[in-house]
Amino acid sequence: MRFNVVNRVNVIIFILSLLPVALPAQTARDTATSGIPLLAIKINALPLVNPFKQAIALSADLRLARRFSVHAGAGRFLGSTTFVHNEGESYTGQRLRAGIKYFPVISASNAFYIGIESKYHDIKHLRYRDVFRQGGQYLEILKTERKVETRGLALCTGGQFYEGRNRRLVIEPFAGLGVVFHEVTLPLPPDAELIETEEFLSFEFEPGKSRFLDVLLGIHVGVGLW
Questions:
Q1: Is 215 a residue whose pLDDT tops 80?
Q2: Residue 76's CB: how many other CB atoms inside 10 A?
Q3: Where are the alpha helices (DSSP H) in 137-217?
Q4: Within its chain, how far is the Cα of 110 from the centroid?
Q5: For residue 2, is pLDDT > 70?
Q6: pLDDT (average), residues 143-148
Q7: Mean per-residue pLDDT for 39-59?
Q8: In this model, does residue 205 exceed pLDDT 90?
Q9: Of 57, 215, 46, nearest to 121 (Cα)?
């Protein structure tokens, strides 16, 4: 059956009249079928270039429900250009993270979340230090082993952006604010007395327990599976 010009115009007008209804329906359908990844495996890029503590940090997100996921991460401190100055010194240890995320905004190409994240660091810092021995009778350059344990809890927020073919590439910038608790031990021989050095700017935590404000900043890059 062949349409004349009038019929074709009527059909076009009819289709245009349906657009206000069709577009919201399409948006709702896209939102319903899209979601956060079932599993996302990521690496945090910023710890690799951190000027204080260089580290590798891997993590994974596992979706529990449409708007909820849990995440866990593990990594290792590789060194420090701030705390290591001489051959034979090192700054190494493990870093662990875990938390839960809630996604109030989800679309086919991105999602935004708020969450809670906990962390634990166990660092061994080998460094040469000047000490007095035997009541100050002589000075010795002693290789010490300083241990730093860190526990923290923070509120965080971020976004996941799904790029590439089949939305497999996941880019996730995030930020957060919380509190960390440090416990530092620096065992010395019984007759050794640490010589206090006047450093213009020192980022080492003093031996003992302390508490500080913690600021989280990072960007995860990884692969998502739906």
A1: yes
A2: 13
A3: none
A4: 18
A5: no
A6: 94
A7: 92
A8: no
A9: 57
Cα–Cα distance list, 159 to 7, 13, 36, 54, 147 (Å)? 49, 41, 11, 24, 35
Q: Which residues contact 223 (CB under 8 A, 6 or more apart)?
A: 40, 41, 42, 168, 169, 170
CA distance 36 to 102: 10
Place of tokens 């994240």: 117
97-126 tens-digit pLDDT: 999 999 999 998 999 999 999 999 999 999
Q: What whole-number distance in Å separates Cα of residue 113 and Cα of residue 63?
A: 13
pLDDT band at 128 (very low <50, low <70, confident <90, very high): very high
What's the token pair of residue 192?
């050794």
Q: Per residue in 133-164, is it b (16+ CB within 10 Å) or e — as a string?
A: eeeeeeeeeeebebebebebebebebebebee
β-strand pairing of 110-133 with 169-185: unpaired
Q: Following CA atoms 3, 6, 8, 10 in sequence, which dihedral angle do they give, to the nearest 10 degrees?
A: -130
**Taking a C-beta distance cutoff of 8 angstroms, is the pair 155, 177 a contact?**
yes
CA 51 to CA 80: how far, in whole Å?
Answer: 7
